[in-house]
Amino acid sequence: MNVLLVEDEPAIADTLVYALKTECFEVHHALTGQEALDAFGSTRFDFAILDIGLPDMTGLDVCRKMRETSSVPILFLTARSGEVDRILGLELGGDDYVTKPFSPREIVARIRAILRRATVPATAAATNGNGSSAPAPAEAAGPLHHDPSAMRIHCHGAELDLTAHEYKLLLVFLKNPRRVLTRDQLLDHAWADPGAVTDRTIDAHIKSIRAKLRVAKPGAEDHIQTRRGLGYLFVP
Ligand code: CA
User: Fold this and answer.
1) How far is the CA of 44 from the centre of ligand 1 (A)?
2) Distance 53 CA to ligand 1 centre (A)
């Protein structure tokens, strides 16, 4: 696992680099946004940790640039929880965030949780039968088509560029069409540590998924409907 760590405070960076290396992650540490983008352009990373307050640009700017070419899982480090909606929502598509101060152990746990969520369907498919790696059959609901082996969801034939959480959420909808799902149910299915996120996090992700579905088929009705006071409903 190759991790890109973007953090300008040496004390925080040093403890994180040490904790990540102890857990057998490869770490590339960048001090500025530009340094991070240069590294990102020339090396393949499995994960990125972005501090929001950087000397030359914000971590949000770095994320926006990275998202132009990549859906790598991104964990934000932030000093202010007020930034959460932007981080996780439509605009930036981050996967999770940690508020400073934090313990390195917490960061490692979050990374493991995000990576685990992103790989669960693949692992399940690989252990089918007698350990054979026959690809799991594709699933479909209305305009959505799920390829479990590739962990991709298509809408009206167009591949959706989803973050790990969006993928897990949309999968829950795809498997439960025309069923009202409460925010608690969605949290339980899509987050390894549901206690760490709020209802607003779910709402921000749904908003982002809706926008991506709209891009796939402009003018189409929202497939994910809000049931006020209850939750969300997927109508294929
Ligand atoms: Ca900083």
Assistant:
1) 24
2) 4
Domain 2-117 and domain 136-234 have a common topology: no
> What is the domain partition of the chain in residue ranges?
2-117, 136-234
Instruction: Tell me the C-alpha to C-alpha distance, in Å, between residue 165 and each of 41, 116, 117, 142, 181.
Output: 24, 11, 8, 21, 16
93, 35, 37: which is closest to 62 by C-alpha? 37
- Residues 135 and 18: their CA atoms lie apart, in Å, by 38
pLDDT confidence of residue 138: 67
Range from 127-131, 149-153, 220-224 carrying the lowest mean pLDDT: 127-131
The reply to whether CATH 3.40.50.2300 applies to domain 2-117 is yes
Residue 227 alpha carbon to ligand 1 centre in Å: 40
pLDDT tens by residue, 74-112 = 999 987 766 666 666 545 667 788 888 889 988 998 898
Terminal-to-terminal C-alpha distance of the chain: 37
CATH topology of domain 136-234: Arc Repressor Mutant, subunit A (1.10.10)
DSSP string of 44-87? --SEEEEESB-SSSBHHHHHHHHHTT----EEEEES-GGGHHHH
Question: In angstroms, what is the span from residue 90 Cα to ligand 1's centroid?
Answer: 24
Using CA atoms, how far apart are residues 191 and 168, in angstroms rounded to an integer? 8
